[in-house]
Specification:
mainly alpha, 64% helix
């Protein structure tokens, strides 16, 4: 409605003051978002998992720490994909008439993140490691779940500058939309290297979250044995 985006609002103060549930709810209410499914909360899930990792490791519960560390990778992985941090998550839905079931760019989310990534997974895997090593943007220190949540918003902001969501939507529309091979190949030709770059950034942020949670738990020793896979499955 003409004001700052939620991401801009959260990052504007340079501190944790807007990385709060109340601040986000106020923004949603002020922008007419009242349905629960219209309110993104990904950074708060990172907050929850960070706190869980610290608490469980302090208690010597390595199995729950490892399970939570694996689960939080889902959310950091989403955060490093530019469409997840944008209201253009699946095209220009705001351009649709009330009750419409289609709009410009609808389908870009799954075509880009599923079809393209699956088709070019080998090429991506070859680039993510080098991109993670080349990553040199500052990651704020974090010792609490709230700080980890803010770092997640910073990751969203970082990747949106590498692949602007509107550029991705516009190219998908230009290619004709849908999931055909020419469309998927066209997205890869335009965004392939940058997709490896944002995934590399996500890998670095995920490592930072893991390291910070371990440090916040005061470096307890891990047992010199592998965590049992069946135990992790039962926790999950």
């Amino acid at each position: 409605r003409g004001g700052p985006t939620l991401r801009d609002l959260t990052l504007a103060s340079g501190d944790l003051s807007n990385m709060r549930v109340a601040a986000w709810n106020d923004w949603y209410a002020g922008n007419g978002k009242t349905d629960w499914n219209a309110k993104g909360l990904l950074p708060f899930r990172v907050w929850q998992f960070f706190t869980l990792m610290v608490d469980r490791l302090k208690a010597g519960d390595v199995e729950h720490f490892v399970c939570a560390a694996g689960a939080v990778s889902h959310y950091i992985g989403d955060a490093c994909q530019p469409l997840h941090g944008s209201y253009h998550a699946d095209g220009y839905r705001e351009r649709a008439d009330a009750g419409a079931t289609t709009w410009p760019g609808k389908g870009v989310h799954s075509t880009y993140e599923d079809k393209m990534v699956d088709r070019f997974s080998a090429q991506l895997l070859a680039t993510i490691g080098p991109q993670a090593q080349a990553f040199n943007a500052p990651i704020q220190p974090m010792s609490t779940g709230q700080a980890a949540a803010l770092a997640t918003v910073q990751l969203m902001d970082h990747v949106a500058k590498i692949i602007p969501p509107t550029e991705l939507c516009d190219e998908y529309i230009r290619l004709g939309g849908g999931t055909s091979r020419p469309v998927v190949d066209g997205l890869w030709n335009t965004f392939g290297p940058r997709t490896g770059q944002v995934m590399g950034a996500g890998a670095r942020y995920l490592a930072a979250v893991w390291d910070a949670a371990y440090a916040a738990a005061a470096h307890p020793a891990f047992p010199a044995v592998a965590v049992d896979e069946a135990a992790l499955a039962a926790i999950y």
